[in-house]
């Protein structure tokens, strides 16, 4: 399970300590194997605590959803590296422990408490590895983005004694704002089944008694590709397909001849996408980028390895995306 969650670590790069400047005077040089006569220098800090929190929240939610599928109702409360489960009845205890061991046992220890309560704590080696993976994958993500900028001989490497910083040097880069935006922005892609949509939250939750179901979330977006009206979507928390399932992405045009992004899924992603679309024909599928619904087309038939993100994109926006 946790291998399937690691795609999320790619998007937890947060710029908490950001030093940016341009250095164009010929007299000012930085010697790091190369003499740079102009360009951009960044120091980025990776929010590894966010990576830990995201792992814990996702583990907690997947366990709760797995129990729900077996008609076992519990409440979960996630923290940074631990989460609690409450409401396990005596008759469900054996099934609960078996499912918990299968879903989260590899990364969390399980400690029982009073009145059907359990605490799951991330194992120390998993904490260390999760922090290290967050930095490593952030470096890899930045390298891919820098390569797309077309900069000659860039430097992207871990930096500082904490092990949680990254140095980025872009020789000859003159557009500081665009470089900062592309390198530091997140790019979280999720495809989720839509339960309902409405212009306001009261209308959205009306069919659920005005309460947000525990296994769902509200995501803002637009009504459609051609209708920019603000719309709220009630979607399932667990994504059908995520950015980790991507094999590649490329600029293209949609059916309205507008800029869009086509993508191809890897083998696992294609299998998941095929199953989800087959089971949800005639239902909307939200294409969510950075917690914003770009579009929510209706699933007309089973879809395999290829898809497309349409939205109100410019050509430059598609290239950056």
Task: Characterise the protein shown here.
α2 packs across α4. The model is unreliable at 1-34 (pLDDT under 50). The relative contact order is 0.12. The longest helix is centred in the middle third of the chain and has 26 residues, at 124-149. This protein folds into 2 domains: 2-49 and 126-184, Gyrase A, domain 2 (2-Layer Sandwich); 189-320, Gyrase A, domain 2 (2-Layer Sandwich). The strands form 4 sheets. Strands 9, 10, 11, 12, 15 and 16 form a 6-stranded antiparallel β-sheet that branches. By secondary structure, the protein is α+β, with helices and mostly antiparallel strands. It has 8 helices and 17 strands.
Explain briefly what this protein structure is.
The protein is α+β, with helices and mostly antiparallel strands and 321 residues long.
Tally of separate helices: 8
CATH architecture of the largest domain: 2-Layer Sandwich
Helical percent range? Answer: 25-40%
How many distinct beta strands?
17
């Amino acid at each position: 399970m946790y291998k399937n969650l690691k795609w999320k670590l790619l998007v937890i790069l947060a710029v908490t300590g950001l030093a940016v400047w341009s250095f164009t005077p010929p007299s000012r040089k930085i010697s790091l194997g190369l003499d740079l006569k102009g360009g951009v220098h960044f120091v980025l800090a990776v929010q590894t605590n966010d990576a830990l929190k995201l792992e814990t929240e996702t583990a907690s939610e997947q366990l709760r959803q797995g129990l729900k599928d077996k008609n076992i109702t519990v409440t979960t409360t996630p923290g940074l590296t631990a989460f609690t489960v409450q409401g396990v009845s005596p008759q469900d205890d054996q099934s609960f422990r078996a499912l918990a061991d299968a879903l989260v046992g590899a990364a969390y220890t399980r400690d029982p408490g009073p009145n059907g309560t359990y605490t799951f704590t991330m194992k120390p080696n998993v904490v260390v590895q999760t922090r290290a993976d967050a930095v490593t994958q952030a470096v890899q993500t930045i390298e891919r983005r820098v390569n797309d900028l077309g900069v000659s001989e860039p430097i992207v490497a871990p930096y500082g004694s904490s092990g949680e910083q990254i140095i980025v040097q872009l020789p000859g880069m003159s557009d500081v704002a665009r470089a900062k935006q592309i390198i530091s922005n997140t790019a979280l892609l999720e495809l989720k089944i839509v339960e309902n949509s409405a212009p306001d939250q009261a209308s959205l939750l009306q069919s659920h008694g005005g309460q947000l179901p525990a296994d769902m979330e509200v995501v803002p977006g637009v009504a459609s590709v051609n209708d920019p009206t603000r719309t709220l979507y009630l979607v399932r928390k667990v994504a059908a397909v995520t950015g980790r399932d991507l094999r590649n992405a490329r600029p293209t045009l949609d059916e309205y001849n507008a800029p869009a992004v086509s993508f191809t899924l890897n083998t696992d992603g294609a299998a998941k996408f095929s199953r989800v679309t087959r089971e949800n024909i005639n239902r909307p599928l939200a294409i969510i980028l950075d917690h914003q619904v770009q579009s929510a087309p209706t699933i007309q038939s089973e879809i395999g390895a290829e898809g497309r993100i349409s939205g109100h994109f410019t050509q430059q926006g598609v290239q950056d995306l």
